[in-house]
Amino acid sequence: MNDLAVEKTQSTPAITADSASGLLKMEGDSYPENSFEFFGPVMEWVREQLSDKACPLHLELRLIYLNTSSVRAMLDIFDMLEAAHGRGVDVAVVWYYDARNQRVADLAEEFKEDCTFAFEITAEEPD
Questions:
Q1: Fold of 4-124
Q2: pTM of the full predicted structure?
Q3: Taking 90 as the threshold, does the pLDDT of residue 78 lie above it?
Q4: Which residue from 55, 84, 96, 98 puts its CA 20 to 30 A from 117's CA?
Q5: Which residue spans within the chain are E strands per DSSP?
Q6: Contacts of residue 72, Cβ cutoff 8 Å, sequence gap at least 6
Q7: Are 70 and 103 in contact (CB under 8 A)?
Q8: What is the pLDDT of residues 5-61, one digit of tens each?
């Protein structure tokens, strides 16, 4: 399985996916012109990673802003994680947010409400 590396832009997050460690990281703002096109390779990587019960998937997020279509893409990813968790796959999410930005914490809490897998929301103090 291939790893994934997408460079951060003004409107898209940096994304790295390491299949050997099962770690998927996203960091930055997410309001791409076409979320379906942007998140397509990410969703395919998640699908492939979760197809093997022995492969874990840990999602590490440092997302600041998500537009509506990016929220939908994240919901689709979380749905895949939830289904895999139901099959016994080791999945977890850690969502880091700037302690000064309660809006992001609230968004993460909304995502967490529907998840039964490990989901941690962690405030980071600014430098």
A1: Transcription Regulator spoIIAA (3.30.750)
A2: 0.93
A3: yes
A4: 98
A5: 4-6, 14-18, 23-30, 57-66, 91-98, 118-124
A6: 35
A7: no
A8: 999 999 999 999 999 999 999 999 999 999 999 999 999 999 999 997 788 999 999
